[in-house]
Amino acid sequence: MSKKDRMEDIAQSLKANPLVLPKDVTMHSTITPEGHVAYVFRHQYLGELGKMVIVPHSQEKTQWDSQIAGDPDDPMTQQRREIIEPFFQELYQRADTLFGASSPQSPPYKVPQEEHLIKSMVMPCVKCGAITAMLIFADGDEASQLEDYARLMFAKVKELNVPTWVVGREKIIRIGSQTFDEALVLKIWPTREAARIIPPTELNPLLDELMETHCS
Asked: How confident is the model at residue 117 (pLDDT cuts 50, 70, 90)?
């Protein structure tokens, strides 16, 4: 059986008997930069959970790489793992059914390194110049999209160790004859809070206070 035939068998198996997913989890297929098929799992609130990458080899063998999204040191990575692990196990079982138990599998639950250019801003102390807070700007306005940015920036957030918020795309709302700006905001450091709509009139004074009282 050729590599192409094996990939088609996998796709047909998932089409004929889809994975049973919770209502807050979705799965879609994509092609990796290396040209392999990957099944990506997303959560309604946690964003990307991880992916299963299918790597066909010669001699009718197929490698299944299970990858958790997120930094190993990020507590949210463990949450994503707990959700996605059952789906990985079911895909492994599909592989055994289709190609026999000899199909090679990578050590499960790799966490790949991700590099992205993400817009952010730091707030310096007005006296000593030390960083007192950071804002990460997400190109989206849903909680899952903000979580994606929080995941990708975790290493930097941990390094700076200052209060940090992920700010979604601003919206202009109209109340009567007046207009206001607001955005979905997710505080991620040093403690996490639920994402909520915050106007600049609430967030900006908080940032100003952090900058002005740092050396008090």
From this structure: confident
**Angle in degrees, CA 91, 154, 47, rounded to 5:** 40
Nearest-angstrom CA–CA distance, 168 and 187: 11
Other CB atoms within a 10 A radius of the CB of residue 101 amount to 10
Taking residues 50-65, report their average pLDDT.
Answer: 78
**Calpha distance 156→18 (Å, rounded):** 38
Distances (CA, A) of 77 to 27, 152, 175: 18, 11, 40
Q: Where are the beta strands (DSSP E) in the chain?
A: 25-31, 37-43, 47-56, 62-68, 120-124, 131-137, 164-167, 171-175, 178-189, 196-198
pLDDT value at residue 206: 94
- Please tell me the predicted confidence (pLDDT) of residue 158: 96
What is the bridge-based pairing of β-strands 164-167 and 131-137?
parallel
